[in-house]
From TrEMBL:
Enzyme Commission number(s): 1.17.99.6
Protein name listed in UniProt: Epoxyqueuosine reductase
Cited PROSITE patterns: 4FE4S_FER_1 (PS00198), 4FE4S_FER_2 (PS51379)
Residue sites binding [4Fe-4S] cluster 2 per the record: 196, 212, 239, 242
Protein's organism: Aequorivita vitellina
PANTHER family linked: EPOXYQUEUOSINE REDUCTASE
GO molecular function, one term: 4 iron, 4 sulfur cluster binding
GO cellular component: a single term: cytoplasm
Cofactor note: Binds 2 [4Fe-4S] clusters per monomer.
Length: 308
């Protein structure tokens, strides 16, 4: 291990912190041997539902050296999105990650700055930045890089801050010092499994995507099946139930990223306000939000499904 490797690793981690990332972990870019059978089994059981894109690029998903030729290190980063205020209690709910500006824009910008810093301080380093928009198994890399462990609900968990954060990566052709995974601290707790109203958590660390409320309210383009009627607990975009009940999320701390703050009107909207939402109000409140993924018609479909 050269002196430079250690120096570069420290430089990158310090800059990630300066840019506002919660933490930064690094692992060797190599084939994810343990993940391959899991992903294959998940796909074979059609747990991806209509998310056909999950079946594409199987090899790239498991091997960053195919995705980014010449890559040597995967730099994993976490960014907190836990809000200081949440919606009023009796209303149709939006997953906390979608409260403010779409995280893709915010994180892409930070990753670009980190990449520029690496080029300036270290020299010509090639790589690519990823924010869950490419075939990268974010959670597997974050766990491998020691940033947390995979909980029973299949989200990454840390003892210090729970699970309300985004995961992103830089995959680069630079040798760095690699971190070791941390131990699992879920123990015999089954809070997330017990609380899921659609029984989407089918085994330890296995979520049947096609049964998840987030899938029904965001990914599913057709009508929501009547078999799940009355089971959404007022979630109209995404769902945080498995995270909300997790004991480790008692330690969540509010983010300090102003762009993640919701449009002021959003927090106080009642069920009636949502039921009467016009396209104009939708565009105003969710102008730069991830909620735009469902479009106005999709959100109306979800609200009508909850209301009926």
């Amino acid at each position: 291990m050269s002196q430079n490797t250690s120096k570069y690793t420290q430089l990158i981690k310090a800059e990630a912190k300066r840019l506002g990332f919660l933490s930064c972990g690094i692992s060797k870019a190599e084939f994810l041997e343990a993940e391959a059978p899991r992903l294959e089994s998940w796909l074979n059981k059609n747990m991806n539902g209509e998310m056909g894109y999950m079946e594409n690029h199987f090899d790239k998903r498991l091997d960053p050296t195919i995705l980014v030729p010449g890559s040597k290190s995967v730099i994993s980063l976490l960014l907190n999105y836990f809000p200081s205020e949440t919606q009023t209690s009796d209303t149709y709910k939006i997953s906390k990650y979608a409260y403010g500006t779409d995280y893709h824009f915010i994180i892409k910008d930070k990753l670009k700055q980190l990449m520029e810093f690496i080029s300036e301080e270290i020299g010509e380093v090639h790589g690519r930045a990823f924010v869950d928009s490419a075939p990268v198994l974010d959670k597997a890399w974050a766990a491998k890089s020691g940033l947390g462990w995979i909980g029973k609900h299949s989200n990454l968990l840390t003892k210090q801050l729970g699970s309300f954060y985004f995961i992103a990566e830089l995959i680069v052709d630079l040798d760095l010092e690699y971190d070791a995974p941390v131990t699992d601290h879920c123990g015999s707790c089954t809070a997330c499994i017990d609380a899921c109203p659609t029984n989407a958590i089918v085994a330890d660390k296995v979520v049947d995507g096609s049964k998840c409320i987030s899938y029904f309210t965001i990914e599913l383009k057709n009508e929501i099946p009547t078999s799940v009627k009355g089971k959404f607990e007022d979630w109209m975009f995404g769902c945080d139930i498995c995270q909300d009940v997790c004991p480790w999320n008692r330690f969540s701390k509010p983010h300090n990223q102003p762009l993640f703050n919701p449009h002021p009107e959003m927090l106080s909207m009642s069920k009636k306000d949502w039921e009467e939402i016009t396209e104009e109000v939708f565009q105003k409140i969710f102008r730069k939000s991830a909620v735009k993924r469902t479009k106005y018609a999709g959100l109306k479909r979800n609200i009508n499904f909850l209301k009926e």
